[in-house]
Each structure stands twice: as C-alpha cells, then as structure tokens.
Amino acid sequence: MRRDSKLSGVLHVLLHLAEHDGPATSEVLAKAMSTNPVVVRRVMAGLRDHGYVRSEKGHGGGWTLACDLSKVTLRDIYEALGSPGLLAMGNRTESPGCLVEQAVNAALDQAFHDAEALLLARFGEVTLAMLFADCHDRLVSRGGAHDLESVHAS
Q: Which UniProt keywords apply (predicted)?
C-alpha cells in the first residue's frame, strides 16, 4: 500500500524556501519534489490561502515564505493540506450486525482515536523553525552551501 507523502513533500519545499534566497519557481520546486509544476502550484496555492507562502508572477517571480517559522507547526501545515487521513488501517464493516465485529471495531476505534490524538499533539509541538534548525545544522555539518536548483540534481 502506497503511503501518502504529501505532508512530507510540502515540509520539504517549505524548508527549501527557508534556505533559498529570493523566490523559487514552481518548476524548480517541482524538481525538488519529483513532481509536476502544476501539482506544486495547486498545493502552494492552498498554503498561500492560509498565509504561509506568497507568490509573485512574472520574470523574477515565484514562491516565498510569508510566515514566521517559529509560529507554524507541523499540525498547522497538516490542517492546511485538508487534514488527510493519518492511518492506513480501518475497520471491517461487512457485517455491522455481528457482535464480534462490533466489539473488534469498538476496540480498534479507540486505539485509532488515541493514536491520531497522540500524533496530532506531537505535530503541534514541532515548529517549522525546529525543522529548519535541524536542516541548517545538517547542511553546515556537511560543509556545503544550499542551492535549491542543484541540491536535487540527478
């Protein structure tokens, strides 16, 4: 089963923008995400609607951050993406009148609820500034400069 990596990809792009001097085009960001620029524009437009990024059209335009990284959490970005499902598992619903299925589903419902609550709470504790600091430390320890247009070159 394929996992949904949209949140990871968006966080990836936001951190690149934090390191990047000036605007980055959808084409450059698409290379970093290994996707189509149309997908990037669609996702970034949703983030723009929430005030996390801004865009400028024309020559020299592109996407830039519009938020304070210390005030934005993983949960904020997760919610801006429409709060996609966190867990791939679900309940069996083929026999809703079956008492065994009801008991199993009740136990699983509680476990799923608890797991999601814990994960969302953790998302709320991690800011983009924390991710940026970790990323920046990794770049510095590697001794390399950050260049969005070549860092993902194949």
A: DNA-binding
Q: Which residue has the tokens 């476990």?
A: 111
Q: 13: exposed, middle or buried (C-beta count within 10 Å: 0-12, 13-18, 19+)?
A: buried
The answer to whether the beta carbons of residues 63 and 14 sit under 8 Å apart is no
3-state SS assignment for residue 25? coil
Domains and CATH numbers, the chain: 6-151 (1.10.10.10)
Give the Cα separation of 47 and 126 in Å (integer). 18
pLDDT one digit per residue (tens) for the chain, 154 residues: 567 888 998 999 999 899 888 999 999 999 888 889 999 999 999 999 999 999 999 888 999 999 999 999 999 999 999 999 898 888 888 998 999 999 999 999 999 999 999 999 999 999 999 999 998 888 888 886 666 655 555 4
